[in-house]
Specification:
- The chain has 292 residues and is of the alpha/beta class.
- The protein folds into 2 domains: 10-122, Rossmann fold (3-Layer(aba) Sandwich), CATH 3.40.50; 145-290, Succinyl-CoA synthetase domains (Rossmann fold, 3-Layer(aba) Sandwich).
- Helix content is 36%, strand content 23%.
- The protein has 9 helices and 14 strands.
- The chain has a 7-stranded mixed sheet, with helices on both faces.
- β6 (92-95), α4 and β7 (120-122) form a beta-alpha-beta unit.
- The two termini are 22 Å apart.
Length: 292
């Protein structure tokens, strides 16, 4: 098994004709993901190396059966494309685009929650989702990873790759790797993904990689205490980050003592989550829990 993407994924890509969109779409297809279409209102009827391009999401879903959307649309239009995909009945919308206005993110989150509860949004500003050996939806470098029993969820794209690679070097594979993005209004939270991993038969250990800013990790700690029986290993980026300065992601800002790496680690450790101070430590803890 895997979560969110797998052998039944039928992927369509908004922005498929752009440089980044076409590059990663074809990479996903080369990995084995079933790419069934793309969206560009100005290029409907064309194709990208055999992948048909549709003018809108409704037509794409009706003619290709797409159940998963990947959004590579520029920031001013990305939220609207994601909402259109949800309105067309797409079950999973993965938004890679960075720099979407926070107001647009908030409107998208509330609209999907209220009007399209059957659609899950992952992102914005995320690297996507990889289920090794099954499907890759996004920009995660899939060649580093193999199928296994460790689920990874992360706010940071590069840390997703680094921790996944450390686990791979230690001999572990992954059930799924999910980048939820670091923006202030993510479509899916740590809790949403951890809930999926808890229910997934393939996943035996959950690794969550957080960072400074907000309270997503503290909320996850409270959820884990009451709802998660599987072992969870944590990592928090930003122990040396200066207070009051945005670091990398739009959501990675510390105000006073709120949102610090130390506070997040303390909250997780208080509920039994072991927190590594480096990605290498995370892999070592995984070895101690699951064995080499």
């Amino acid at each position: 098994m895997s979560i969110l993407v797998g052998n039944d994924t039928k992927l369509a890509v908004a922005g498929i004709t752009g440089r980044e969109g076409s590059f990663h779409t074809l990479n996903n297809r080369s990995y084995g993901t079933n790419v069934v279409g793309g969206i560009n209102p100005k290029k409907a009827g064309e194709n990208v190396e055999g992948i048909p391009v549709f003018g809108d999401w409704k037509t794409c879903v009706a003619e290709s059966g797409a159940n998963t959307a990947m959004i590579f649309v520029p920031p001013p239009f990305a939220a609207a494309s994601a909402q259109e995909a949800a309105e067309a009945g797409v079950e999973l919308v993965v938004i890679i685009t960075e720099g979407i206005p926070a107001h647009d993110e908030l409107k998208l989150y509330n609209t999907v929650k209220e009007k399209h509860p059957g659609t899950r949004v992952v992102g914005p500003n995320c690297p996507g989702i990889l289920s090794p050996g099954k499907a890759n939806v996004g920009i995660i470098p899939a060649s580093f990873f193999k199928e296994g029993n460790v689920g990874v969820v992360s706010r940071s794209g590069t840390l997703t790759y680094q921790i996944g690679n450390e686990l791979s070097v230690a001999g572990f594979g992954n059930s799924s790797i999910v980048g939820i993005g670091g923006d202030p209004v993510p479509g899916s939270s740590f809790i949403d993904i951890i809930e999926q991993f808890e229910a997934d038969e393939q996943t035996e250990l959950i690794v969550m990689s957080g960072e400074i800013g907000g309270d997503a990790e503290e909320q996850a700690a409270a959820y884990i205490k009451d709802n998660v029986k599987k072992p969870v290993v944590g990592y928090i980026a930003g122990f040396t980050a200066p207070a009051g300065k945005t670091m990398g992601h739009a959501g990675a800002i510390v105000s006073g003592t709120a949102g610090t790496a130390a506070a997040k680690a303390e909250a997780l450790e208080a509920v039994g989550v072991r927190v590594g101070r480096t990605p290498t430590q995370v892999a070592k803890i995984a070895m101690e829990i699951l064995g080499s």
